Amino acid sequence: MSNNPPTRTGILVSRLQDIVGHEAVLTAKCDLAVYECDGYTIEKNQAEVVVFPSTTDQIVRIVKICNELQVPFLARGAGTSLAGGCVPVGGGVMIGLSRMKKILEVDYPNRFALVEPGVVNVWLSNQIKGNGFHYAPDPSSQGACTIGGNVATNSGGPHTLKYGVTVNHVIGVELVLPNGEIVTTGGAVEDMPGYDLSGVIVGSEGTFGVVSKAWVRLTRNPEAYRTLLGVFETVDAATNTISEIIGAGIIPAALELLDQLILGAVEQAFHFGFPLDAGAVLIMEVDGLNAGLDQEASKIEAIAHKNGAREVRRAATEAERLLLWKCRKQAFGAVGRLAPSYCTQDGVVPRTKLPEMLRFISGIATKYQLKIANVFHAGDGNLHPILLFDERDKDQLQRVLHASHEILDKCIELGGSVTGEHGIGVEKLDFMTKLFSADDLNMMIRLRDAFNPTNICSPNKMLPTAGACSESGMVSQTKPNRRAAL
Amino acid sequence: MSNNPPTRTGILVSRLQDIVGHEAVLTAKCDLAVYECDGYTIEKNQAEVVVFPSTTDQIVRIVKICNELQVPFLARGAGTSLAGGCVPVGGGVMIGLSRMKKILEVDYPNRFALVEPGVVNVWLSNQIKGNGFHYAPDPSSQGACTIGGNVATNSGGPHTLKYGVTVNHVIGVELVLPNGEIVTTGGAVEDMPGYDLSGVIVGSEGTFGVVSKAWVRLTRNPEAYRTLLGVFETVDAATNTISEIIGAGIIPAALELLDQLILGAVEQAFHFGFPLDAGAVLIMEVDGLNAGLDQEASKIEAIAHKNGAREVRRAATEAERLLLWKCRKQAFGAVGRLAPSYCTQDGVVPRTKLPEMLRFISGIATKYQLKIANVFHAGDGNLHPILLFDERDKDQLQRVLHASHEILDKCIELGGSVTGEHGIGVEKLDFMTKLFSADDLNMMIRLRDAFNPTNICSPNKMLPTAGACSESGMVSQTKPNRRAAL
């Protein structure tokens, strides 16, 4: 017989096709290219196969075949993550979850929804808003990112300050373990006994298996908002205002800072009417029962004025409020107007260190002759300095690398960390050894091994491999990248 | 030489004394008896030794000796837990944490405190109240229980409904692992990367090691309260009110139900002026900025009246408010006036199932000719039916056992669980197989093994051992018990 024996890839593809059908398996190079990276475009690799299951049972069968054939696999939502978490660094099978996009149940009296992982974040809020509810975690990418992806990265958003991050809104998950077993954690009732598996699965960046369903909380829409725009001569005045608002016991729904450089770009794009000569603006929102809000907004205004605000405007209409939020959420898109390339960093410092950290970033910009724009979740101390450059200029690129590295090291020095919400992924692996002791990291590895003992599920993510801590030269995570909008 | 070789206990005691000094090691039977059980007095066992370290380093050295000599160990806070979580079922070394009671740091601008595990819950709130802050989780035992114990059991309290349970207020821990390694998870900055170890350590009931420090959030005191007492003819009217308040989008700070039987006991004890002919009362508290509260309180009053409330009173003074809370928090103590013995159960049902569940409990009382009092965290659907009896009457005891079992089974049937806040401990081990699949339980065991691979730390707690699911007869967890005040 002239037939060649089938290749391993051939066997793999054929068996995956048996499960999901031919049209739900991609193998052509041009198709695989679509799935070779996420928003962190520096790190790319193609999967051997991309497969699109429609049910939990299909995920189980796919995972079991991967185990049988010893092929690594990983899940992918919308690919809007920003640290390479869904890059198939070791090849293998990518499990695309975009066909699992059903909102399976909405229970208003008990305030939860049961969703498949491919449900886009904003779809859920859109479906329930007529009943006066929303899904609280609101990353700027919420029009594209999926709830499964939000679970993997424990996504935040501008309203994280008051409402918490994804882990505060997920009350249970169904997880297909890397060996194909299904575990169900938590669920509709919030007080299940046993270890809090849901809590540790959220934010595990896909290294514990494939989340195939999630029970999420519904949050009642506030009765009213007051959305204020504070205009400051200097970044210092704005950051001092932040500390004083929080110190006064006010927890705004959101507290976002945009500096002069980003304001210019946003104003060009959206024509909101931002003062282009201001050093920084703060978007400050309070929400709740209408009766208390004017008092709270007045307190914020007084604090802003005391700290030297030139002007504090209130959004007069809902349309004005929504435009203000559009300016904020699409700020990263507007950065394209400032430079051909940009590198966004994601650092955290204790809130009281914000003035010092912003001054440090300003000094770094001078030292390396770079423009650095700032737009960030100020209330959380979560910075997103955006380093502007032209990637065709190798000298600029080197300066950006060094500047990024110094900024992240400073975050650690001030008692913070190197990621507030984008995760470790592949980008920041090497920083883990700066943040954690060997014992801490070993504990995390043992925890991963409890779920993923053979490391067949999304290998080489989140935790450094032994000896990965390099003392020499630049580490890969500070390479610049073109980022999707945050 | 006539000297006998030293016994293992002799070696153990001597080596522990070398670490902490003679006065911090107890071995006499009469001393050990103090530590033989917690609030679940049915299950008792004496440790071989009780040792009181003063530092993390001493805990590490104690744990290493236990490993060397292969003696099991477990930690104990104040012993106010209610499910036998700190009973040394296998003997060995009990590590009492009452000497580690320092509040090490209070950072108001960044809103956290760093405490040792033996700090009593209310001490922290007392220390910070002058600055306008408190520590939010407020179990009724807060005058005695420790923050270390709260971390172990993920304690709640009346204000859990709005403010969340312990896991929502612990941002980091230092944990001595069962092998003596120290891991530090989270810390002062909330957004640390890596797996959420803090989240999974909270509520692990001491099976992951010994928590030696905790970073906890400080919560700003609300500007004002409105505390309402709603008086209802029937339990049904009260539970319908609860559902409608939550359904209206109001999240009270607390929402507690007391039925007629418990009201009688509480009134005898504290003379608040409760109407003794009412079927049930609700304590309903809203808090926040003063400006919005009257509106919110009025909405609650309207809902209560719509559901047939005979009367809704507002606490007129802070003294009246505090007396009302004293009545609630010490209700379990007052139960001693009703019967020589009582058995408190701790079940959870979805909030919308409360009316059905309360009717079921009433039916159970009739069926088994028992008096059952109810006082509970109504807003969370967390029930505490109190079965009254005389333990000297074996027939009554049997009826209490059967009634308890039926109540917990009904909670499961309605989509709830068998513990809202007391934990599994040793009391409810056998129910785990009713709540979780074999795969779910195996995942929990693998998780425990990641922290505690040899199971030397608090063995035979929280997770059933293989084959522990008994089909025959009554299971031990439904044995009645004299409980400390909740």
UniProtKB/TrEMBL annotation, chains A, B:
<dbReference type="InterPro" id="IPR006094">
    <property type="entry name" value="Oxid_FAD_bind_N"/>
</dbReference>
<dbReference type="InterPro" id="IPR036318">
    <property type="entry name" value="FAD-bd_PCMH-like_sf"/>
</dbReference>
<dbReference type="InterPro" id="IPR051914">
    <property type="entry name" value="FAD-linked_OxidoTrans_Type4"/>
</dbReference>
<keyword id="KW-0285">Flavoprotein</keyword>
<dbReference type="GO" id="GO:0071949">
    <property type="term" value="F:FAD binding"/>
</dbReference>
<keyword id="KW-0274">FAD</keyword>
<dbReference type="InterPro" id="IPR016166">
    <property type="entry name" value="FAD-bd_PCMH"/>
</dbReference>
<protein>
    <submittedName>
        <fullName>FAD-binding protein</fullName>
    </submittedName>
</protein>
<dbReference type="Pfam" id="PF01565">
    <property type="entry name" value="FAD_binding_4"/>
</dbReference>
<feature type="domain" description="FAD-binding PCMH-type">
    <location>
        <begin position="42"/>
        <end position="221"/>
    </location>
</feature>
<dbReference type="InterPro" id="IPR016164">
    <property type="entry name" value="FAD-linked_Oxase-like_C"/>
</dbReference>
<dbReference type="Pfam" id="PF02913">
    <property type="entry name" value="FAD-oxidase_C"/>
</dbReference>
<dbReference type="InterPro" id="IPR016169">
    <property type="entry name" value="FAD-bd_PCMH_sub2"/>
</dbReference>
<dbReference type="InterPro" id="IPR004113">
    <property type="entry name" value="FAD-bd_oxidored_4_C"/>
</dbReference>
<dbReference type="InterPro" id="IPR016171">
    <property type="entry name" value="Vanillyl_alc_oxidase_C-sub2"/>
</dbReference>
<keyword id="KW-0560">Oxidoreductase</keyword>
<dbReference type="GO" id="GO:0016491">
    <property type="term" value="F:oxidoreductase activity"/>
</dbReference>
